């Protein structure tokens, strides 16, 4: 079973708690463990805050979150100029640094973080986290005995899949 949620949001500070609460509430209803939800909330907050801080020429951004089996996959797509994410967040930020900690936090909180810069689209931040479920979770009851989904939570054909 696959569940997908996509939000188009204004590039505004009030959009961050909205998207965070919608995703957290959805995962809670489905029965995701609260510690996993907290990790995802913080990583999502950092990704969205980076859009607000760095996608200067964009008026809006998009967040797509999907649950596919035992994985949560989130993509935050800005409409900015993009950057090379392969080198960012790999080194530890200095204790006194005022910035540079967001990508580091994302990498610590989720299992996979990638950045893809797409011309005419912007930067795509791709987050993946293995989910842990409560024993009586709704999703377990809905999916038990069902065949696996043949497609993932994204509408793409896989050609633009991020590279780690």
What can you see in these coordinates?
The structure is a single chain. The chain is α+β, with helices and mostly antiparallel strands and 164 residues long. It has a single domain, classed as Heat Shock Protein 90, CATH 3.30.565.10. Helix content is 31%, strand content 25%. The protein has 4 helices and 5 strands. A 5-stranded antiparallel beta sheet has the order 1-2-3-5-4, with helices on one face. Helix 1 runs antiparallel to helix 2 and helix 2 packs antiparallel against helix 3. It is globular, with a radius of gyration of 16 Å.
> How would you state the average pLDDT, rounded?
81
Would you identify the regions where 5 or more consecutive residues have pLDDT less than 50? 155-164
Architecture per CATH nomenclature, i.e. the level-2 architecture:
2-Layer Sandwich
Indicate the radius of gyration in whole angstroms.
Answer: 16 Å
Major sheet details: 5 strands, antiparallel
Give the termini distance in whole angstroms.
25 Å
What is the CATH class name? Answer: Alpha Beta
Structural class: alpha+beta
**CATH homology-level superfamily:** Histidine kinase-like ATPase, C-terminal domain
Number of domains: 1
Number of helices: 4
Question: How do the helices and strands line up, and which of them pair or pack?
Answer:
Elements: E1 2-10, H1 15-30, H2 34-54, E2 60-68, E3 71-77, H3 102-109, E4 112-118, E5 122-130, H4 138-143
Antiparallel strand pairs: 1-2, 2-3, 3-5, 4-5
Labels describing this entry:
164 residues, alpha+beta, Heat Shock Protein 90, five-stranded antiparallel sheet, 4 helices, 25% strand, globular, disordered C terminus
